[in-house]
# Entry
Amino acid sequence: MLELRRIRKSYPTPQGLLPVLQGVDLRLAAGESLALMGESGSGKSTLLHLAAGLDTPDDGEVRLDDQPLSALDEPARARLRRERLGLVFQQYHLVPSLTAADNLRLQARLAGREDAAWSRELLERLGLAGMAGRYPEQLSGGQQQRLAIGRALAARPALLLADEPTGNLDENSADEVLALLLALVRDRGCALLMVTHSPRVAAPLDRCLRLRHGRIAEASL
Amino acid sequence: MNAASPRTAFLTLFSHYRRHPGQLAMLIVGLWVASALWSGVQAINASARDSYARAEALFSTGLDRIERRDGRPLTLDDYLSLRLAGAPVSPMVEGEIELAGGRRVEVLGVDPLTLPEISGFRTAGGTGSLRDFLQPPYRTRLAPDTLASLTAEDDALPSLADGRALPPLELAPELPPGLAVMDIAVALELLERDGLSHLLVAPDARVELPDSLVRSAAATPMAPGQLTDSFHLNLTAMGLLALVVGLLIVHTALSLTLEQRLGLMRTLRALGVSGRALVGLLLSELLLLGLLGAALGILSGAWLARWLLPDVAASLQALYGERVGIELALPWHYWLGGLAVTLGGLLTAGLGTLWRAARLDVLGLGHAQAWRAQFLRQLRSMTLAGGLLWLVALGLLVWLDRQPPAEGLTPGFVMIAAGLLGSALWLPPLLAMLLVGAGHLLRRHPLAQWALADLQLQLPRLSVAMMALLLALSANLGVGSMVGGFRLTFLEWLDQRLVADLYLRLPPAQYQAAVDWLESRDEIDTLLPRASAEATLLAKEGSQYQPRPASVYGVTPHPTLTESWPLLASQENAASAWRAFARGAAMINEQLALATGLAPGQRLRLSSPSGPLELPIAAVYPDYGNPRGEVMLTTTDLSARFQTSPDSIAIVLERELPPGAIETLRRDLIQALGIGGGSLIDQREIRRRSTDIFERTFAITRALNTLTLGVAGLALLSSLLAQSSQRRGQLAPLWALGVARGPLAGAGVVQLGSAALVTGLLAVPVGLALSWCLVAVINVAAFGWRLPLYVFPAQIAATLALALGVALLAAVLPAWRLWRTSPRILLTEFEAL
Amino acid sequence: MSPGGHAKRFLPWLALVALLAVLALQQRDTEPPPEDFAGLGEQAEGYAQARPGAALRFPRDHGAHPDYRIEWWYLTANLEDPDGTPLGIQWTLFRQALSPPDDDDGRSDSPWASRQLWMAHAALSTPDAHFVAERFARGMTLPDSRGQAGVKLEPFAAWLDHWRMESRSTAPAGDTLDRLQVTAQGSDEGYEFGYRLDLNAEGPLVLHGEGGFSRKSADGQGSYYYSQPFYRVEGQVEIDGETREVSGRAWLDREWSSQLLGSGQRGWDWFSLHLEGGAKLMAFRLRGGGEEGGDFVSGSWIDADGRRTSLAGDDLRLKPMTYSPVAGRQVPTQWRLRLPSRDLDVTVSARRADRWMNTAFPYWEGDVVVEGSRSGVGYLEMTGY
# Structure
């Protein structure tokens, strides 16, 4: 499904090049869920961005569905994201000018495969059925993150990439959102790559990797 | 707070601009442009006012003139015999001399020893200056601006085209521009004349004149103040428009910088800076920026005025015969006024900002949720205020309808201002409504739906720039239609009025000889003698107007003339009106009709040397370009009743003439009658001159209009640029969701383009309404004539294209920047806080 | 818009601009008056100079002397109307050359281009009013003594505009000034005034100083100066439309020079008195410029038959007694005049303090009454205050 080979990535800083990833290998099978852990600045988010095709590695290869991303131009990568991927951010990044229902359907519509029944079901299951007409700022943080998850799943992605999806939530909401996320992912047979720094969040996932000094440090909790 | 902390707090607040230099630039540019256009216009006004304040001082002490009946120059003996009989007359010669380099200057030769109204010359220090004035090498007295315009090129003292020197120059700031005054002895020599142009005499002096001389009363001043006031009011209105548009930019910029600094301000409050201190800090920031912007603006305003002034001077001279120096004369209050208006405008624009800063919620609670409700509230109050302004405008319109037209100038401008502002305030609600509606229609097109929703989000900030654009577009369209309509009407009218090929002006004594000579020529088809006189229109019992001066104009109602002469109103039809005219009825021009309410079928009373005349009015005719009321009679009637003889002849030539025949006739005529070439004007010349005058009149209007439109475009561009970093936060998620940067950038351009198109569409009715107000209210009040309203589809299309063009120009740069943004920058938007 | 309409609208405007020239010229009026009254003490290089020893010839010297810088024809008269109300008149024609005779660079031969400036003053005094008018004219280089102002000899006429002093006599016998008619009309603050007087000389011309050269300061410069003090006057004066018959005496002064005052002289006090018994007294005091910086006093005693005796400061004493505020200055309006050699000790008093001539060159000129050892009437002129 997703394969990262010998990925290297560094960022220019005033003090010179800062190596972030120094030869990372990672494989994720279809339907599998993987937690990527590590300290702040260990390169977790960078790795996620590379996987989503939002950024390109200095060296190494990202393959999605056995296809190297480097072979795609920007419109093709954008299309891939639209149709195959779902993204959930710590900051939700909902469109403030659209209602909850429209936010939820946005990616599916962009991908050209809106499924009204599935969208309705998602709203139900995310506990947002009564709030379809509300605007994002009229929802609580947990509701907003659930909506963001709904948006990512509404287009039926093959791979869901989540960057600290519960980072802004209190523990109760976090547990609730996480449970929902995992249930939905399993139901859909969707693969999940989740970046988190919290072992508690990482625990329910199939596998767990830890990034340290730009390398995969250990293969389990 | 200790003494150092306000400084720290101020620097902290101000550090925002180091991060966002674009916002600082936008603020300063807004202030700069607003204050530059406003002060430019004020500088022009101040300078022109100074020029005719000097001339107007003369009107109040008008002197009568004495001329020879036969139109020839007066001789020394004419003068001496009057003086020796005790008449306090003073000789004067006037003429134009050509200086080396082709510049021309009006020369006035006077005898300071006999000019009336002088108790004498207290020529202290011996006969000092008087002696210099009276004795070789004499002196040329002129105003500093005349001097500057004469010597601008090489700083050398001017000499005549034939190499003779002008007498040494002496500055006399009281003199009007364009005029050189010198002793009559040297003036006669420079002008190469023997005779005097005329004699001057105080109006209250009794003088017995021989029959060969005629005294004409000091011309009733045409109240240049009132006439030129309307011109200046026009300019001021344009300046105000520019100021408003500029301040809208400032307002946008201020709201933006405040919004982005809310967090910073909360932090400062949390760190112990009081709300009052915070307002004080913002206020001092505003003042600092205001001073900078005003200084830049006032300086550029002076520069702008210097650039426009020659056109203004030309317009004023063409329109009203007012001379205006083309050198700027800036009184101290210009500088102070520019500063005050800029700072005042800035504070008005910043008031909302300060208010919000003062009520800043330290914890920032509820803020995020409030913006939508707040914006809706804002839209509601905009709708309401816009409605109120429109009510004011309509109320004024109804009121104006019942007033005499001449009093409508200021209320007319107020009405226009209210209508324009009302429309501008209605723009954001209209846009918001359209966005909601379109969002429903386009819900199946996700990107379009997103773009519409996103535009709603941008609206609070874009709306001010869009309002500026609406104002500029409406003004552009309105003024454009007015000018275009005027051009059409005016040129058509000129063609109708100028039926003759040549116009010959000549002194009464030469009249018969000229007619005899002309009648002997084969080229001539018809001669139409014309005459003129001055009279007073007397009030009649029950009439609504005061007695007023009017010119009386005599024409010969020959079919050549009557068939094409346009009439605005007649009792039955044009043919019967001309028949009545030929039998002794009068026609009046539109100016007089509008000013007095006289209409065909009524009778008017006119003073004349043979006592008051009472004449029926046969028709009203349009008389564009003439500031005065005019009564038209047949030349025969006029000559008989005003005891004068024709003073000019309109010469209609045969239709089929060989080429060059006009020139031959012209030459022969000049030679045979011994007249100056200037007395013979051909039709093409008049047409050219009139068109010139016309073009000049509107040159400044158009220049200011274009500048205003530029400012509006700038407002749009700067508000887009200023929020571009914020926009990134809204665009990045969409990019992450799978919309490439290209379509995103394209969506931005389309968003702005459609908003501008709507603005342009709204500008069409507003502009047409403005155009109507200009032709039907402002023109009538300012000039005394009314124009038909023309609608030019091409101009409307051009306005829409202009709106789109401005918007696209403004949108393309941010879109290009977005398209070029590296993904890394977009990724930073996802970094966890 | 009629052809040429704009030009036409321009004309009246242009005509009025003339006034500005005047305004501009008058700008300088606000400077304080110079010590040197009316430029009479200016250096006079290039002009002819008055010198002792030149014989005056008449009628030639009744005419203008254009090569000299300044010149005047100065008539004053003490009159009475039938009710015995005392009236005074003044008629003066001044000529001033603006540049020396040989300075004709840049001057055209136009009649308007002349070196000469003419100025005339007319005044009429009643016990409670003082009417003043003045007129100016440029000299004109015209043949036959024509022009707006001038003086001609055969027959004698001096004029500026319609103010005239002309000979009524064509008889070859006697002097051309013996019988004159003098006219002037003017207005002062809205009051019209005028006069027409017939003058008959009852005595000869009197040449002052050394055969007509009158010294004006200790260092020698002076003027040519003669008078006709013996006029008997009949005529009419008109004030504000009301005409009165008048009669009395008049005194004509003729004087020309190129430098009247010496440097350091500030002005003069000048008396012309008709004394009881027919004698006349001319006396003047030039303030400053006398020996050791004192005043220069001079005069003529004229017997009723015209015989003249020169007077000088060692005999003639002029002393201001009372000063009055006039036009913002202190002017001596009462004098003590003593001439011990003639047993004369009189007080000379102005009939009215305010006889200020508010003309371009302002000065005091008015009728006076003589009381004391002899009575009489006369005129007093004071300048430089």
In short: Residues 507-674 of chain B form one domain.
